[in-house]
Amino acid sequence: QVRLVESGGGLVQPGGSLRLSCAVSGFTFSNSWMTWVRQAPGKGREWVSTIDPGGGDMYYADFVKGRFTISRDNAKNTLYLQLNSLKSEDTAVYYCVKWTSPMFDFWGQGAQVTVSS
Fold first, then answer.
1. Confidence tier at 65 by pLDDT (50, 70, 90)
2. Residues 115, 117: Cα–Cα separation, whole Å
């Protein structure tokens, strides 16, 4: 059974930081491209970042470049997203997603990130 479980969300002030984690099981994590997708209140889902199976290639949406960092620990079957310099517009549910081109085939339940003073 495939499982993706996000953690680490919460309430943070503008300019603050959070680290999201996603623990996965049920598939070969070390062979899988992984992605973070977010959905802000009242908006559609938007792609945030993708990382290759080995962790050497990372891709980011323009609106998070220089602020967010995707990483992974294949020994722990865990995906991470470090969020720095957070803005109110980063408020969203963040989803950990397994990507098998061209599809996002498995999704976590999401982690709420709220940026507010």
1. confident
2. 7
